Amino acid sequence: MPELPEVEALALDLKGRLDGRAIVAVHVAAFSALKTFDPPLSALEGTLVDDVTRHGKFLDLDCSGTHLVLHLARAGWVRWREEVPAIPPKPSSKSTLAVRIVLDDGSGLDVTEAGTRKSLAMYVVRDPLDVPGIASLGPDPLTDDFTVERLGEILQREGRKQIKGVLRHQGTIAGIGNAYSDEILHAARMSPYKPASSIEGDELQTLYDALRTTVGDAVERSRGLAASELKGEKKSHLAVHGRTGQPCPVCGDVVREVSFADSSLQYCPTCQTGGKPLADRRMSKLLK
């Protein structure tokens, strides 16, 4: 799933490619992806791409004042094409193509989504804040006003909620998803189940430093990379996320997993839970 660092780098890459280009057409191959009807898609035709920015995990193309906003969800991505086919794509349940953006020089973007769970979303709006998900975003963790004091206020407000869920809830803090929340908590040597409001003093500073460093370093590593390189860069620098059964790069203990209905988290028992494995109900059922 693309998170803040990847979307930030993707916005930067696309800004360089699209600056001053005109949009000829936007073809929707997966109708479920388009979430708005006013302005119509035709409002984008003939507009110039003035800017490409990010709001949390949302990608925002400013097209002469009309905004084409994308949320790539779990399995979406944007692929640059030097030349797009002349024939518009046909809707197909077998294709990963969701949206095709055609530019005035014959190049374009394919917005794709793998898998059967279709969650990718596209909005055509006059103001990014017209997108409900953007309007409800929490603070961006890399801005100057996201201080340790502000993080402390957020954690106290969230009470006994588990810190893992607090970090990845977009209305609380924008841009952090499943992968980077795992990485932040590993860097902070903190259990994903720790109650948010119990994190104070030195622990709060440790979590804040881990958050800013983990996400900030990922942004810097991704900056300047082409879209095609971003997924590989992310995966190659993960310490625990997606590495179940492999050795922790810090202590050598085996990285473990807790599975949920539609996701999972990874952690190191030695680094984060005092050597105690966390209960995994799904795995417990399989072992009975």
From TrEMBL:
<dbReference type="InterPro" id="IPR035937">
    <property type="entry name" value="FPG_N"/>
</dbReference>
<keyword id="KW-0863">Zinc-finger</keyword>
<dbReference type="InterPro" id="IPR015886">
    <property type="entry name" value="H2TH_FPG"/>
</dbReference>
<keyword id="KW-0378">Hydrolase</keyword>
<dbReference type="InterPro" id="IPR010663">
    <property type="entry name" value="Znf_FPG/IleRS"/>
</dbReference>
<dbReference type="GO" id="GO:0003684">
    <property type="term" value="F:damaged DNA binding"/>
</dbReference>
<keyword id="KW-0862">Zinc</keyword>
<dbReference type="GO" id="GO:0006284">
    <property type="term" value="P:base-excision repair"/>
</dbReference>
<keyword id="KW-0511">Multifunctional enzyme</keyword>
<keyword id="KW-0238">DNA-binding</keyword>
<dbReference type="InterPro" id="IPR010979">
    <property type="entry name" value="Ribosomal_uS13-like_H2TH"/>
</dbReference>
<feature type="domain" description="Formamidopyrimidine-DNA glycosylase catalytic">
    <location>
        <begin position="2"/>
        <end position="120"/>
    </location>
</feature>
<dbReference type="GO" id="GO:0003906">
    <property type="term" value="F:DNA-(apurinic or apyrimidinic site) endonuclease activity"/>
</dbReference>
<dbReference type="InterPro" id="IPR012319">
    <property type="entry name" value="FPG_cat"/>
</dbReference>
<keyword id="KW-0234">DNA repair</keyword>
<dbReference type="Pfam" id="PF06831">
    <property type="entry name" value="H2TH"/>
</dbReference>
<protein>
    <submittedName>
        <fullName>Fpg/Nei family DNA glycosylase</fullName>
    </submittedName>
</protein>
<dbReference type="Pfam" id="PF01149">
    <property type="entry name" value="Fapy_DNA_glyco"/>
</dbReference>
<dbReference type="Pfam" id="PF06827">
    <property type="entry name" value="zf-FPG_IleRS"/>
</dbReference>
<dbReference type="GO" id="GO:0034039">
    <property type="term" value="F:8-oxo-7,8-dihydroguanine DNA N-glycosylase activity"/>
</dbReference>
<keyword id="KW-0456">Lyase</keyword>
<dbReference type="GO" id="GO:0008270">
    <property type="term" value="F:zinc ion binding"/>
</dbReference>
<feature type="domain" description="FPG-type">
    <location>
        <begin position="239"/>
        <end position="273"/>
    </location>
</feature>
<dbReference type="GO" id="GO:0016829">
    <property type="term" value="F:lyase activity"/>
</dbReference>
<dbReference type="InterPro" id="IPR000214">
    <property type="entry name" value="Znf_DNA_glyclase/AP_lyase"/>
</dbReference>
<keyword id="KW-0326">Glycosidase</keyword>
<keyword id="KW-0479">Metal-binding</keyword>
<comment type="similarity">
    <text>Belongs to the FPG family.</text>
</comment>
<keyword id="KW-0227">DNA damage</keyword>
